[in-house]
Design brief:
Blueprint: H1 2-10, E1 13-19, H2 23-35, E2 40-47, H3 53-57, E3 66-67, H4 71-74, E4 81-84, H5 91-100, E5 104-107, H6 115-127, E6 133-134, H7 142-152, E7 159-167, H8 184-187, H9 191-194, H10 196-207, E8 210-218, E9 223-225, E10 233-235, E11 241-248, E12 253-259, E13 268-275, E14 278-283, E15 289-294, E16 300-303, H11 324-339, H12 349-367, E17 373-374
Parallel strand pairs: 1-2, 1-4, 2-3, 4-5, 5-6, 7-12
Antiparallel strand pairs: 7-13, 8-11, 8-17, 9-10, 11-12, 13-14, 14-15, 15-16
Length: about 400
């Protein structure tokens, strides 16, 4: 099956299956529709717990087969690539089954709801004959890739400092209903797991491996209605807001803030990288721009456009505007190109495993009132963090 997937990709035709029927699955599907401008993409099957016809009709692509059993996707002979977009606690079961049946896998972040589940996926990935991918969509954004290229080329010197954040405001509303993301058994944690995975991955990608973490977490809204407008309320035991300090292996320092209770704020992903010869700044609110400041030179703002690696998949003129779906397009294009050995990077299961280790260290630190905790790089050791349970 491995050769079959490679041959299919080389011919420019890939058959996809999606496990999941929620919001994120729809983003992947919209991206696959855009990917048809690059290669021949065919959606063969979708599986999920909820197969309500209204949900199915909301999908942007034709759905030839819909099932309530993930195995109808992970074991289908006419599926080359499996996209896993389920709640976190289902990732390990679905991913491992897909790997065992020779599929190329693109899994949503985080890797799993527990560190043990993440290790299971990581081991299964190591046993596979090829790399598989994880949906860290912000690191495949061309402006972020440009920042990485400048850092690696030494354009800002030796990196000594990093500051980043990912913020949402939707959950500050006390009427925002309880969901699986607020159930630690299903999600593995709150904001630090859900959006923190993105923020931590960006820090790793741009600066390097994280050695130790100090974190403080808050649950700002202690209970929520089970349904919007309902009278029954459920306790919230995961974090709404987490602030992290990091020490990297190269002795650089890092600050990362993740919150889904930033009142009045639109979603933002941002970072600043400080080096001995300059600095870089990026914000998702101006996603086509990278601010570059070099010692002794006037700062400049670089605007990506048709010359970027995915220009053929986007608007032909710089500055017309890009959106969140474009980030998923970049991810899937990178996955295809990386699989075919075309010299591009794409976030892998290995990246997601290392991110899970940092999240675990952050959760253990938060439960110890911010005490510094090492990132456990080699052994699955018990801890008090939710991901460790």
């Amino acid at each position: 099956m491995t050769d079959d997937v490679h041959d299919a990709a080389a011919r420019g035709r890939l058959r996809y299956g999606i496990v999941g029927l929620g919001f994120i699955a729809q983003l992947h599907l919209a991206a696959l529709e855009r990917l048809t401008h690059y290669c021949d993409v065919e959606l063969e099957a979708v599986a999920g717990v909820d197969v309500d016809p209204a949900v199915v009709r909301a999908f942007p692509l034709r759905l030839p087969r819909v099932s309530g059993d993930h195995r109808d996707v992970t074991r289908a002979d006419d599926v080359d690539v499996v996209v896993v977009a389920t709640p976190n606690d289902q990732h390990a079961t679905v991913v491992v089954d897909a790997l065992r049946h020779g599929k190329l896998v693109v899994c949503e972040k985080p890797l799993a709801s527990t560190l043990e589940g993440a290790r299971t996926i990581h081991r299964a990935g190591l046993e596979s004959s090829r790399e598989h991918y994880v949906s860290f969509v912000f690191r495949t954004w061309p402006t972020v890739e440009l920042a990485k290229q400048l850092i690696d080329a030494g354009e800002i010197g030796d990196v000594f400092g990093y500051r980043g954040h990912m913020v949402h405001g939707h959950a500050l509303d006390p009427g925002h209903p309880h969901s699986w993301r607020m159930d630690p058994l299903r999600s593995g944690g709150g904001a630090v797991v859900d959006i923190g995975s993105h923020a931590i991955d960006l820090a790793r990608y741009l600066v390097g491996e994280v050695a130790a973490v100090s974190a403080l977490s808050l649950t700002v809204i202690p209970e929520r209605p089970t349904v919007r407008g309902g009278s029954h309320r459920s306790p919230v035991t995961v974090d709404d807001h987490t602030a992290l300090l990091m020490r990297f292996d190269n002795d650089a320092t890092g600050q990362v803030l993740v919150t889904w209770v930033a009142g009045g704020e639109s979603t933002d992903v941002a970072f600043e990288v400080l080096g001995t010869k300059g600095s870089l700044r990026f914000t998702w609110r101006r996603p086509e721009e990278l601010h570059v400041a070099r010692l002794g030179q006037h700062p400049q703002t670089v605007v990506i456009g048709p010359d970027d690696p995915d220009g053929d998949l986007r608007f032909p003129v710089a500055g017309l505007g890009l959106g969140y779906v474009d980030a998923f397009v970049s991810l899937h294009k990178r996955a295809v190109d990386h699989h075919l050995g075309r010299g591009v990077a794409c976030p892998t299961i290995e990246d997601a495993w290392r991110c899970a280790l940092v999240v675990d260290a952050a959760q253990r630190s938060a439960e110890a009132a911010g005490a510094w905790r090492p990132v456990l790089a080699d052994a699955l050791e018990p801890g008090s963090g939710m991901l460790s349970t």
